[in-house]
Amino acid sequence: MKTATVETNRPSPRTVDLPTLLAVGWVLLMLFTALAAPLMAPYEITSIDLRHRLTPPVGFGGTMLHALGTDDLGRDVASRLFYSIRTSLLVAFGATAISVLVGTGIGFIAAYFRGLVEHALLLMIDVQASLPFLIVALAMLACFGNSLTLFVALMGLYGWERNARLARGLAITASAQGYASATRQLGAHPLRVYLRHILPNSAATLLVAATVTFPEIVLVESGLSFLGLGVQPPMTSLGVMVAAGREYITRASWMLLAPSLVIVITAVAVSVLGDWLRDKLDPTLK
Amino acid sequence: MTLLRLNNITRRFPLGSPLYGPRKYLVAVDGVSLDVEMGRTTGIVGESGCGKSTTGRIALGLEPPDSGGVLFQGFPLPRIDSKKWRAQRRQMQLVFQDTLAALDRRMTVSALIAEPLAIHGIGDSASREQRVAELLHGVGLGEDHGRLYPHQLSGGQRQRVVLARALAPKPSLLVCDEPVSALDLSVQAQIVNLLMDLQQELGIGLLFISHDLRVVRHVSDRIVVMYLGRVVEQGRADAIIDQPAHPYTQALVSAMPRLPGGFDHYVALPGEPPSPTDRPCGCPFHPRCPLARDVCRQSLPELLPLGPERQVACHVVRH
């Protein structure tokens, strides 16, 4: 009976393909590294070993003493990388969460109230979209100084306007569609319609948008840290490491390559993971 | 006893921008009055665009009429989206045509049917579960269907789910807007018969909207025939079908397939129904009416009684 009524053409059960497995593996590895950085790091991130300045990694003439080599002050690249992943992931996850929550909230409010409220919110969105984020971020950091909390909150402003527009569009489409008006017709409170019906139905798209925002935030964070306005020393982040490695790119490229590779692979992995999650969350694709 | 009374309701939608020239209006419903009796069925027929769905939405209180009033159990409907309005939804429910759109595809059938119970706080979770099982059984589905998602059901099964969902809070009025038009003939018959059985059992008042005179005739006690937003004829179902008075009803009835005689007396209407934004003056039906006279082109016929329980809006037929 059950199989006879199923109308989808997709073969069930779907197996997880290799790129997704690799992506899941990488993201889990990153999370583990972020959590276990103090246990994994062989050295303090600030401990200087001047006798081993700019040692290359193992396999390029280096020794197991510093597996990923050292930087210009003889600090261990591997240790710094682990702590950088920790900082960058914290900033990126925190900021993505803020961006998606704020954006979705504002988008839904605009879609629910329509009229004047919607116009005001759309105006805010347009203003944000027309300002280069980096300039806004620089101005804010210059005004308010810098702390990690403030920095995460500021990064959370990145991309909210896109998420808001998306959420508004999704909510308007959904309320025009049958199920939202059908639920309203049943006597449901608008909050119920939005939280129980429109939000779950929009979640897949919003999630994919979040996986696009995530790597962008990693990049913006790296960019700001590169400019010296993001994460401040002695803390380190992937961007800080890239910035430091830039000057030694010809003599000690490992200083730059290690954090850059982590940024790129993490960004790709999160995108792949997002696609997989979207399919996973849709019962019509099962 | 009258459950629902529409009193001379009008609904018009503005067209275009108010800045350029005089504003035009699409008059969807123009002075419609009708009653739904408790435990009885009133059918609305008419071709698409005649305002029957808008009438249904106004009857349910989903949109306000521009003029005229709706009385439900003798009282006017509360303001739309107010707390009272939401609570009243329990009493009046809608059955949709597009069931795939009306059911949230992320919820299982059981969850969908239990939702109105949760919204109105009816029963605890155990009794809701039992009620869902009862309802599934009542509309001819098994408990296995409760675990499926809407897209895994056939059109007829989905319509049964929509019906179960509407019946869950035990409403006294059910508005069915083209409930069977998207289904094949054999499934149509099943759903219509199910609807009638449930009505008998539960004593619900039905407002049954369809373009299909055969179905409306089968379910209705009274029939209201609409043309271009106006009621042209209303009366007892058998009287309307057996002796249609208005020329439009005559044309509709003549186009109804039936066993003896076939299409012998088929009255073909010339032309298309006029646009509701640009109604002809006088009787809206006169450009297509075989009986039209001068008076029809000049003055709008009122809906006046013709025989017992029967009203017709036509200058010619009344004389």
How many E-type strands of chain A?
A: 0
Average of per-residue pLDDT values of chain B: 87
Q: Which residue ranges of chain A are poorly predicted, with pLDDT under 50 across at least 5 consecutive positions?
A: 1-12
Distance between the termini of chain B: 33 Å
- Report the C-alpha radius of gyration of chain B, rounded: 21 Å
Strand order of the largest sheet of chain B: 6-7-8-3-9-10-12-11
The helix/strand series of chain A, from N terminus to C terminus, equals HHHHHHHHHHH
Number of helical segments of chain B? Answer: 11
Structural class of chain B: alpha/beta
**CATH architectural group of the largest domain in chain B:** 3-Layer(aba) Sandwich
User: What oligomerization state is this entry in?
Assistant: heterodimer
Helix % of chain B is: 25-40%
* Shape designation of chain A: elongated
**Tally of individual domains of chain A:** 1
List the total number of helices of chain A: 11
| Most extensive interface, chain pair and sizes | A-B, 24 and 34 residues
The CATH superfamily of chain A is identified as: MetI-like
Can you describe what's shown?
The complex is a heterodimer of chains A (286) and B (319). Chain A has one domain: MetI-like (MetI-like fold), CATH 1.10.3720.10. By secondary structure, chain A is mainly alpha-helical. The N terminus of chain A is likely disordered. Chain A is elongated, with a radius of gyration of 23 Å. Chain A contains eleven helices and no strands. Chain B folds into two domains: 193 residues, Rossmann fold (3-Layer(aba) Sandwich), CATH 3.40.50; 68 residues, no CATH class. In chain B, a hairpin with a 2-residue loop joins β9 and β10. Chain B contains eleven helices and twelve strands. The model of chain B has no long low-confidence stretch (mean pLDDT 87). The radius of gyration of chain B is 21 Å and the shape is globular. Chain B is of the alpha/beta class and 319 residues long. Helices cover 32% and strands 23% of the residues of chain B. In chain B, strands 6-7-8-3-9-10-12-11 form an eight-stranded mixed sheet, with helices on both faces. At the A-B interface, α8 and α9 of A face α2, α3 and α4 of B. Chain B: Belongs to the ABC transporter superfamily. Chain B: Keywords: ATP-binding, Nucleotide-binding, Transport. Chain B: One of its GO terms (molecular function) is ATP binding.
